[in-house]
Amino acid sequence: MIAPPDCRRCPALAANRNRVVGGYGAVPATVMFVGEAPGRHGADLTGVPFTRDRSGRRLQAILIRMGLSSESNPAAERPRLRGCYLTNVVRCNPPGNRRPTASETAACLLYLLEEIAHVRPRILVPVGLLASQALLGWLGLPAGRMRDLHARPIPVPSGIGPDGLQFILPLRHPSRASNAELDRFARALSDLLWTTETQGF
Potential cystine with 61: which of 74, 81, 152, 183 (Cβ 3.0-4.6 Å)? Predict the structure, then answer.
């Protein structure tokens, strides 16, 4: 489920990273957030996805607002999550904090798919375009531009994903999203959480 700590499948990543970063949170989880890769000033240092850096703090603030974290401080580096799990497509920080390449993404995809099967989310939240393309491509669903995908619930047809997975809800990367976009995402996620709870999904 996690790349081995001495993984050398991607030489550039192995030479650059501080650590291999695995997932973190509740298992099973209603919501699973999947980022692109650990941030140089965040998870690469803390070992916990979406912590310490600005993007992490913005995402943690959403989790607190939604009741998916029992923290009061979005800067917490080992947040107490409720029904929520955090991970990344790629497990190592790329040089210069760049976007992972297609080969780096492919090298880590098996770890992510094993993790999804283990966590059993009802709602998958790909964070950013790379994660959205990777997850939608895996399910055979069309992707597109992030501005069209952001906060748009995508139903997962029965039989094409793991048992229990009902929706994909892409999130524009917190480093680029406006406050209004983050608010729109929070409303969409709230609606999906209500749907999955009240309709027995």
Answer: 74
- Number of structural domains (the chain) is 1
Range of the domain at 62: 11-195
Q: What percent of the chain has pLDDT over 90?
A: 89
Strand partners, 185: none
Show the DSSP H helices in the chain as ranges. Answer: 11-16, 43-46, 54-66, 102-119, 129-138, 146-149, 179-198
Q: Do 130 and 36 form a contact (C-beta atoms < 8 A)?
A: yes
Domain at 129, CATH number: 3.40.470.10
**pTM, rounded to two decimals:** 0.95
28 cis-preceded (ω within 30 degrees of 0): yes
Return d(Cα 73, Cα 71) in angstroms, integer: 6
